[in-house]
Design a protein that fits this description.
Number of helices: 8
CATH class: Alpha Beta
Number of strands: 7
Oligomer: single chain
Bound molecules: NADP nicotinamide-adenine-dinucleotide phosphate
CATH topology: Rossmann fold
Distance between the termini: 43 Å
CATH superfamily: NAD(P)-binding Rossmann-like Domain
Helix content: 40-55%
Order of helices and strands: HEHEHEHEHEHEHHE
Structural class: alpha/beta
Number of domains: 1
Shape: globular
Largest sheet: 7 strands, parallel
């Protein structure tokens, strides 16, 4: 009898950007545990090496997804290593504070380049390969992109994720005839990512954590593995009738 826990992605090749930490690391490991070969991409070699440790199916690629030519480099590296690309997970992102009154150009440009333009170019570069294999693109969004948010500072981050959701829906429609599915997950507050908000001190991060939990009906932060679970589920062949959806994985934050 086939072991379904390891057979789902056997023979499949997956790219996960931002695979050195948090949700990306959990996603890469979940795919690898289910038989996939995974290319993890990030800027910090040591983090990627930790993701790949004890996981023979995971290969690291140190690259800045927003650099010119990065999209082609990533897809070419996956093709050289695995000979195919079946799943692309656009997960790498940065959070920069941009409250009205203190919107700085470099913060805006960095978030635009990493959070929106890089997924666009990478999807474009991967598309010919994905089309060959009835492939899947999963864009990692955020629950706060789908509602108004009272805390100043992350609204541009949220707006760029909302733009990514729009691409998810339109690409899903446009790529359906080519057999490529496109979906998203919209995490609520996940424990691993809270400390990554640049520009906040420890006290502000504590306050943010408390406020975030107040917005979550389930009353806790999520775990990276709980997001990775749905990313891999959406990529499975059994999810073949799902495209264009952006799934909240947020403890009920959107409906609460
Ligand atoms: N944690 C949350 O509460 C939460 C909630 C909603 C949505 N999300 C989304 O979930 C995704 C993962 O976030 P996370 O929580 O796991 O945070 P994270 O640990 O900060 O992960 C982001 C990853 O992206 C990589 N990265 C950043 N800029 C990059 C670049 N220019 N090129 C290549 N890699 C880059 C980082 O590695 P290097 O710095 O080493 O490059 C890091 O591994 C993001 O899309 C985020 O917006 C998170």
């Amino acid at each position: 009898m086939t072991d379904m826990t390891t057979a789902n992605f056997s023979g499949r090749a997956v790219i996960v950007t931002g695979g050195g930490t948090g949700i990306g690391r959990a996603t890469a490991r979940t795919f690898a545990e289910q038989g996939a070969q995974v290319l993890v991409v990030g800027r910090t070699a040591a983090r990627l090496a930790e993701t790949a440790a004890d996981a023979p199916g995971i290969r690291p690629l140190t690259a800045d997804v927003s650099a010119p030519g990065a999209a082609e480099l990533i897809v070419n590296t996956a093709m050289e290593a695995f000979g195919r690309v079946d799943v692309l997970v656009n997960n790498a992102a940065v959070v920069r504070q941009t409250p009205l009154g203190d919107i700085r150009r470099e913060a805006v440009e960095e978030m635009l380049a990493v959070n929106l333009l890089a997924p666009m170019y990478l999807t474009q570069a991967a598309l010919p390969r994905l089309s060959e294999n009835a492939g899947v693109v999963i864009n990692v969004s955020t629950a706060i992109g789908q509602r108004g948010w009272p805390i100043p500072g992350t609204e541009l981050y949220a707006a760029l994720k909302a733009a990514l959701d729009t691409l998810t829906r339109s690409w899903a429609v446009q790529l359906a005839p080519r057999g490529v599915r496109v979906a998203g997950v919209a995490p609520g507050p996940i424990a691993t990512g809270i400390g990554h908000h640049q520009g906040l001190d420890a006290e502000q991060i504590d306050a943010l954590r408390t406020t975030l939990i107040e917005h979550v009906p389930l009353g806790r932060l999520g775990r990276a593995e709980e997001v990775a679970f749905w990313i891999t589920q959406l990529a499975r062949p059994e999810a073949a009738y799902t495209t264009g959806a952006v799934l909240p994985v947020d403890g009920g934050a959107l409906v609460g």
